[in-house]
Specification:
single chain; mainly alpha; globular
Amino acid sequence: MDAPSLRFDRHELAGAVADLGVLVPIAVALIVKNGLSPTAVLLPAGLLYLVVAAVYRLPVPVQPLKALGAIAIAKGLGSDEIAAAALLIGAIFLVLGRLGLLDFAGRAFPRALIRGVQLTVGLLFLKIAWKLVDDTPKSFADHVHGARWEIPLALVVVALAFALRRRPISLALVAAGAIVMAWRAGHVSLGPSALVFPHLDGHVFWTAFTVLALPQIPLSFANSCLATADAAKTYFGDAARRVRPNRLATTLGLANLFSGAISGMPVCHGAGGMTAHVKFGARTAGAPIAIGTALLVLAVAVGSGLATLLGAFPVAILAGLLATAGLLHIALLRDLRGAREWALALLVGVLGFAVNLALAVALGLALYWLTRGARALRPALASR
């Protein structure tokens, strides 16, 4: 089956904007708290969306590196450390992708374990959505009136998104949010913000590797490469044959080398983003072309006023779309069969969410192969 023909109808556009709940909050925080150039924040994401449209011909998502972004924001790290981490992750995944190691490694991961990774991502989406409305980031706080109103509004968005997801509801919600954003923001300066090249030395690279890159690499391996390829195959069958772990590693690797070079936002792919795009209507490369073009236009046309503009977007809409995507992503587990598969998926998913995804994947993989080996040996031992 070939990839679907290029399309730009209302359903495709609705799918294109369905994953903004992840991108916008992290982008705004990196601009406001970490001092990244707004233009440099959106450029890597916009360009990577255009690349995936050409390479995969499907709505493959582009997202910020979530673990890296969360740590960088929490610790208040500067643009140099973030750039160094992007360069390190870019180089590592580019090498892994070009050597063909991830396709081979992916064969060792059973479906139940991948579903566990996807459960972790779905739960993380729900957690981020809740924090958006219950503990709104300072970059959005000037435009909200407290959780008393934001939580009910977000629940209304979730209800609408679920009830009308076969219609372009996400497009209508984002359009409404854009109108509110423009009204709240008022006058916004035009033109791009300055791009800054990073200042790198051994200390910066060491901090970037130990604090930012190490926690992110297992998540990118499991979610950006393996789980995204699995989600694409689940949704598109043979049409997703181009969406392989090695290729995903290559495209995210190249994107992060570019991002690091301009002190921009590190980016990745993500299985949850795939669900968001697909479940809200995206079926072709039209969705990544549309959202990629929009991000590039924003980066160039209003980059200097982007923090003010994006910070005025209603958090209830972002949280509602994000929560809906998380719940729909968790629904991927419904194809599991038998107690063993469910137990493994739940173990990996819950442990990955509550403790550490790398630990959860390692434990799940060890348990799967140990039990499989024990079952294989049982007949031989019984015959003695």
